[in-house]
Amino acid sequence: MRNDFEIWMERQGYAENTRGAQLHRVGKVEKCYGPIDDLIASNTFEEVIRELTYSTEDERLGRPNPSRIQFNGNIRNNLASYKNAALRYGRFLEETDGVPLDDEGDTEAEFSDRVATAQPERHKLALERDMQAALRRDILSLGKDLSIVDDGVERSVASGYIDILCENEAKDFVVVELKAGQTDPRVIAQILGYMGDLLEEEPARSVAGIIVAHEFDRRTIAAARAIPNLRLMKYHVHFSFSELGIAQ
């Protein structure tokens, strides 16, 4: 495992205990299957991911743990955690493209051109990470019966990564998708893809969605009218100020 994986996770806004858990899980996957870098290079990574997949149907039928990883507790929940950690490490490898990160989380190439070319997008991503961290601390602001069920990191599904995965009092999944600024119509396909992936993984459970943004485009609003299990919620930014005491 590359040492700069933790730097990357820190840049993604993951809490220290979450980073520690991810490092542990990736380490355990690599101990049982070998370095993920090598698995990707040999085109066997997807086979490992399939081996780490355990459905609600598998659970209902009482099927044994299909993986090489030994653990105590619920098979489905444990394997989902290991699979998500492995996929997250794979995303880290893809995004960094084999180039180590510096202490600021930039590759050497990114450092040279980040101000000129990448600053607006990075600012947007940083804002979305801050939004996610704030919402995780106050998830009840989206619904009084919501609880987070993704272990503090984005849940991996076939279509991508769910910003925050919750469940409500009825044990239905609730997908939360965050957008800094104004949405564009693509967000509808994005969140419906995530919701559909969850329905495929766990067909016995219902799924709802919440899109959180500062403003919503006209098409997203129109589409949401036709999707009864999708809600749109606006966030508001508040500033507070305090005087910096300077010794004279």
Automatic annotation (TrEMBL):
Coiled coil segments of this chain: none
Matching Pfam families:
NucS_C
Q: Where is the Endonuclease NucS C-terminal domain?
A: 128-217
The domain of life for this entry's organism is Bacteria
GO MF, one example? endonuclease activity
Asked if the keyword DNA-binding belongs to this entry, the reply reads: yes
Family annotation (CDD domains) = NucS-like (cd22341)
The record's keywords, sorted A to Z, are: DNA-binding
Record's protein name: Endonuclease NucS C-terminal domain-containing protein
Q: State the organism named in the record.
A: Antarctobacter heliothermus
Source taxonomy: Bacteria, Pseudomonadati, Pseudomonadota, Alphaproteobacteria, Rhodobacterales
